[in-house]
Amino acid sequence: MKKGLKLASLGGAQTFGDQASRMLMERYPEFTEIVYFKTVEEIFDAVEDGRVAAAVAPEQMTNTGFHPRQQALLVAPGSRLHVAAETTHEYHCSLLGKPGASISQIRRVIGHTGSVTQSRRWLEKHLPRAEIEIVHTNSREAARTVLESDGTIASVATSGMADQFGLVQLAKDIDGGSVGSYWAMSREPLFSEAPTRLVVTGRFGDEGETRGQLSALVCKLANKGYVVQTISSQGSGEALYEFDYVLRFRGTGTLEEVRAALAPFRSARLAGAFEAR
User: Fold this and answer.
1) In whole angstroms, what is the distance from residue 11 CA to residue 18 CA?
2) pLDDT digits over 13-61, tens only?
3) What is the pLDDT of residues 86-113, one digit of tens each?
4) Which domain holds residue 115?
5) Quick check: 52 and 115 in contact, CB under 8 A?
6) CATH number at residue 260
7) Which of 139, 164, 174, 196 is the most interior residue, by most CB within 10 Å?
8) How far is CA 133 from CA 78, 93, 113, 115, 124, in A?
């Protein structure tokens, strides 16, 4: 992988994305700078036009499974996105309120997609009368809204966000111990010559030229030293039993061997070949 690469992260310091970005930088020192954006759309625009090398985005979570947006971006027709690196991150979500507020006062809870979905079970149990809202921007904007409120609004965020905005933690670790897998998603194929993780995408069905090819592909890579870890799929919308897949493999081998193994499968794309660190 190249050196001196920039990572795009959502919001700013003390967000969950920021924490994951810093963990990625520790594991992959090729990434040396974090650039913050207000929305997910702005992040991927920056990847597309080359202002940053990769976007930090959740791939899957223990509480809710695969992140559908990231999976869809990888398998979209003509997608040029790749996976360059990965890390896991424990959420430790906190419920933040305005100083002086109590849980009994809360009538509205806001936060970004990941934090709210990981904590929804706790929120619905302990705040049954509160409206739960996923904001389009990020958890920093949600924290500002809480600070400017009358005390009836709370947000789901990191404990560090409370310190930064002068909020109080009304409850801690409300996500039930959820862990997220985060990917660094790049436009360029930042591949390792000796990858220990592979991400392969493709459309496979039960008819036509792709019939039986999914099994054949898995077996071919297994013979090269890579076994399937996870499989995410979504309907193609064009035929029954036809799906767009994101397959994640682990193992050892060479990039040359992987490319040779995938060459016969015209519907498959090597979307990631990196080292797990």
Assistant:
1) 8
2) 999 999 999 999 999 999 999 999 988 899 999 999 999 999 999 999 9
3) 999 999 999 999 999 999 999 999 998 8
4) 94-171
5) no
6) 3.30.70.260
7) 139
8) 33, 16, 9, 11, 12
